[in-house]
């Protein structure tokens, strides 16, 4: 059963419909007034509107770039656009900030819910759950804001009269509110999803997890040992009570990304998306764009396989992959749309301590024969989906044979994670029907694409956006957040134990025998001596690559500048210390015309 599908136009909804797949009906309002929150439906509508606004960020193109570009994990694809976010070159107040206004609008709505919802006529337990949802969501947005911009305006009362004045409050005060809200929310939220907040909306363990993240982040900011200890304790509590919370890890890492498991035991919190076009998020077959609350996350890393898989591609005299011949693939639903916005950072460093290495294969995914997370995260084999006839005399066909590819059987493109002699048309001395593109031939137009979020369910309308939910939090993160907190608290042995839970899971493969899986799990174990900050960050790459976390991970651990300079050569020259915070949106600065000017973050 999926959650309430929260659909609104102007941030307000008032009534629930019945049925298994709960949907909030739309009743748009032009203005929020206090009287709106004087009924249970008004309070519920305010909360639902905030859930809806989360959909307008997670899964959309600009927000995905904001959360992942300019890190050690991702560099530009050939269609990345201007690239400011990837390189930091020319980054300014016109970049980013799509969620700034949305977050503060939602915070004001939640303040109304919390201010006026105290007296609505509801059973006490129901009222508490509604107010707990509001506290969680207010903390959710403030945590995003303070991580991204530092000091931000802090509001806890419902604003009904617009003001042209605004000030920023210290991050310390923002964290105090976040921690207070999440502590109270965790006390009143149910252990598992409860009507009307079904599916994977906020629950007690979700609030506890976000609270642990807030303590951990504040601990890094202030080097506060007690915050690390508190974060570790919260993660322990979630794990100890996982049965009561209906949470656990899948035995196979890959099962966490099977569409049928999107609302399963490992998923903690999602932003829903829907198939029904009546809600206006897209028109069937309309070739959806990058915004409008549409989930396009399956395709941002997807290379242009229909146009760049020429069957007679060659390696030119300079050793560069050159596309040639009829394409071995056509666009289909299974492999998705080729946006080519970002790609895994497989470029080798040319200088510095990492010279000759790339982050993707030489640091993050190093143990690929045992660790299943590389194979479960990226497409390396594209099966032919069109019949292509190649004659021995066709230009650049060096194989010396003619053939016709068999859809569904032949491999059209193989992207091995190691060098293959004879590539791209041979494997050693054996002619290959498709093309072989090893790491030395990867570039900004051809590379392994992230497959975690692929959505083949759209049938003939394969240009439509995905209706899979955007999964914001997985149970696996409880272990790695706890490991990081224990490491900072001085308990590397406990950190290693928690990391090993995920590493042992990563060793499991359905194709292995029990004995083989046992041997692999043992090989993946680490000890306390192995636990360093860089190891934890690398482990987070292996576990959460492409899951909207990396920029905040590096900022939280004060590692952004160092890691980018070590591993990301397109950004290393331009990144500066002040890039640890994003620029305040210019629209915010321009709107403050009363009182002191609204200050920009240093450096922008």
UniProtKB/TrEMBL annotation:
Key words of the record: Cell outer membrane, Membrane, Signal
Family, as annotated: Belongs to the SusD family.
Originating organism: Dyadobacter psychrotolerans
Subcellular compartments: Cell outer membrane
Residue ranges of domain RagB/SusD in the record: 443-604
Domain of life: Bacteria
GO cellular component: cell outer membrane
Domain called SusD-like N-terminal: residue spans: 24-216
Protein's name according to its UniProt entry: RagB/SusD family nutrient uptake outer membrane protein
Pfam families according to UniProt: SusD-like_3, SusD_RagB
């Amino acid at each position: 059963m999926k959650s309430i599908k929260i659909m609104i136009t102007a941030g307000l909804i008032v009534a629930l419909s019945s049925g298994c797949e709960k949907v909030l009906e739309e009743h748009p309002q032009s203005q929020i007034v206090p009287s709106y929150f004087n009924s249970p439906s008004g309070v519920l509508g305010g909360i639902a509107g905030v859930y809806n606004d989360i959909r307008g960020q997670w899964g959309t193109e600009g927000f995905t770039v904001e959360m992942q570009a300019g890190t050690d994990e991702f560099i530009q694809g050939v269609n990345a656009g201007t690239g400011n976010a990837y390189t930091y070159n020319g980054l300014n107040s016109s970049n980013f900030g799509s969620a700034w206004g949305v977050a503060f609008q939602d915070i004001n709505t939640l303040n109304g819910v919390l201010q006026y919802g105290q007296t609505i006529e509801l059973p006490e337990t129901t009222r508490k759950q509604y107010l707990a949802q509001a506290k969680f969501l207010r903390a959710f947005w403030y945590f995003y804001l303070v991580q991204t911009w530092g000091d931000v305006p802090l509001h806890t009362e419902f604003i009904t009269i617009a003001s042209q004045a605004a000030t920023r409050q210290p991050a310390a005060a923002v964290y105090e509110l976040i921690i207070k809200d999440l502590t109270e929310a965790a006390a009143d939220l149910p252990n598992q999803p409860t009507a009307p907040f079904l599916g994977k909306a906020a629950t007690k363990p979700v609030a506890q997890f976000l609270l642990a993240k807030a303590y951990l982040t504040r601990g890094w900011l202030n080097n506060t040992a007690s915050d690390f200890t508190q974060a570790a304790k919260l993660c322990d509590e979630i794990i100890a009570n996982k049965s009561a919370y209906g949470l656990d890890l899948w035995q196979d890492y890959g099962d966490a990304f099977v569409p049928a498991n999107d609302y399963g035991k490992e998923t903690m919190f999602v932003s829903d998306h829907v198939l029904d076009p009546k809600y206006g998020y897209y028109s069937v077959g309309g070739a959806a764009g990058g915004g409008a609350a549409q989930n396009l996350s399956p395709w941002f890393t997807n290379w242009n396989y229909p146009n760049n898989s020429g069957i007679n591609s060659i390696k030119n005299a300079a050793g560069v992959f050159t596309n040639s011949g009829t394409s071995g693939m056509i666009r289909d639903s299974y492999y998705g749309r080729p946006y080519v916005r970002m790609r895994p950072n497989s470029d080798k460093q040319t200088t510095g301590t990492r010279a000759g290495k790339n982050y993707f294969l030489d640091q993050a995914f190093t143990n690929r024969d045992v660790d299943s997370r590389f194979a479960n995260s990226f497409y390396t084999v594209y099966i032919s989906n069109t019949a292509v006839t190649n004659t021995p005399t066709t230009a650049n066909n060096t194989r010396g044979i003619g053939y016709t590819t068999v859809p569904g059987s032949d491999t059209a493109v193989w992207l091995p994670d190691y060098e293959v002699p004879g590539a791209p048309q041979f494997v050693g001395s054996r002619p290959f029907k498709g093309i072989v593109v090893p790491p030395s031939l990867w570039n900004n137009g051809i590379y392994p694409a992230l497959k975690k979020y692929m959505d083949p369910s759209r049938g003939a309308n394969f240009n439509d956006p995905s209706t899979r939910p955007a999964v914001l939090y997985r149970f696996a993160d409880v272990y790695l957040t706890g490991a990081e907190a224990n490491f900072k608290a001085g308990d590397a042995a406990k950190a290693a134990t928690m990391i090993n839970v995920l590493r042992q899971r990563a060793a499991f493969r359905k194709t292995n025998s029990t004995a083989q899986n046992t041997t692999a799990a043992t090989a993946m174990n680490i000890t306390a001596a192995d636990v360093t900050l860089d190891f934890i960050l690398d482990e987070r790459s292996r576990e959460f690559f492409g899951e909207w976390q990396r920029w905040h991970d590096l900022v939280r651990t004060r590692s952004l500048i160092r890691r980018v300079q070590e591993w990301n050569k397109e950004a290393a020259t331009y990144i500066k210390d002040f890039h640890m915070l994003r620029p305040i949106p210019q629209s915010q600065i321009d709107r403050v015309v009363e009182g002191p000017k609204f200050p920009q973050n240093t450096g922008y």
